[in-house]
Amino acid sequence: MKIPSYSITIQTYVHRFEPYFKPLLARVHKQRPNVEKVVFVNGQHKEKFDENYRREMLQYASYFSNTFLLMSPIVRGCAFMWNNSINYTSGDYVLVLSDDVIVLDGFFDEFEAMLATNHELGDESFRINTHWGHFCMYRQDVLDITNRVGYFDERLIGFGEEDGDWMWRYQDRFKRHMRNYGTNKMPYNTDEKCLPGKNTRTHSNSKYSAFNREFMESKMEMDPNSTNNACGLYRTYTPKVKDGMTVVQDLYPAERWYRENIHKL
C-alpha cells in the first residue's frame, strides 16, 4: 500500500527542554532521520525569553538533520502553534506531537501503516489512541475551509478547547466521528507540573486557559436537538454555534494559494 508523504512537528517550551524535549527529538530522529521535522519553540507569558534556553535549543537542534526551528519570543496558544507548524511543513500529512509523549522503537513502522490504511480509506486527519497530545493532520482538512474543516480557531489564544472546537467542526462537516488508530508504541507521558499556562488565568484547578473556556462559552450553546458531541469528546454536551458568532475565520487564504501554485514557480 502507498504511504503518503508526511512531516513531523513538535511544540515545546523552556520548562520541558531537558526532561521531555531532548529525549523525544532524539528518539524521533533515531527512527526517521530523513523525515522533515519542524519544532515550534514557544515563549512564556509576561516573561523574557530565556537566553540560555534559546542558545541551547539552537545548538541541540543543530545536531539533527532535517530539523527546523520556529521560535517565538512571546507566548502563543496551541491553535496558533499547530496551524503554523503545519504551514511550515511540506508533507501531505503532518504528525503533530506534544513534547510530553514517548516514541518507542517501532512506532513509525506502525504509524506508516496507519497512513497507508488511512489513504486507502480516503485521505483525512486522524487521532492516535483517541488523544490530542499526538495526532495526524491531513493538510487539505485545514486548507479547504469550504469543503472540509479549516484551521484551528486562533481566537483561542491560550491552551485548551482547540481540539474540541475542531472536532465539533469535523463532525458538523462530515456527520461522523474522526478516525482513530491505536498503538502501544506511544505512551502519553502527561506533564502536569510544568504548566504551559504559567502567568495566565486557568480554570478548574487545571493547566488550561480560563480565557479559552470563556471564549467557547461565548461561541457555543447547548442544542438539545443536536447529536454533535465533538467526535465523542463532549460526551452528552451537544452544542451549536451561537447566532452572530463566526464558526471559524478563513485564517490563511494565502497559504492555500501558495500550495495550489508553488509548482508553477
How would you explain this protein's 3D organization?
By secondary structure, the chain is α/β, with parallel strands linked by helices. It has one domain: Spore Coat Polysaccharide Biosynthesis Protein SpsA, Chain A, CATH 3.90.550.10. Helix content is 34%, strand content 16%. It contains eight helices and nine strands. It has helices spanning 17-31, 51-62, 78-87, 107-121, 139-143, 162-174, 210-219, 253-261, and strands spanning 6-12, 37-41, 67-71, 93-98, 126-128, 131-138, 179-181, 220-222, 239-241. The protein has a seven-stranded mixed β-sheet, sandwiched between helices. The chain has a two-stranded antiparallel sheet with strand order 8-9. Strand 1 (6-12), helix 1 (17-31) and strand 2 (37-41) form a beta-alpha-beta unit. It starts with 5 loop residues before the first strand and ends with a helix. 38% of the residues are buried. The mean pLDDT is 94.
Compile the SSE list and pairings.
Blueprint: E1 6-12, H1 17-31, E2 37-41, H2 51-62, E3 67-71, H3 78-87, E4 93-98, H4 107-121, E5 126-128, E6 131-138, H5 139-143, H6 162-174, E7 179-181, H7 210-219, E8 220-222, E9 239-241, H8 253-261
Parallel strand pairs: 1-2, 1-4, 2-3, 5-7
Antiparallel strand pairs: 4-6, 5-6, 8-9
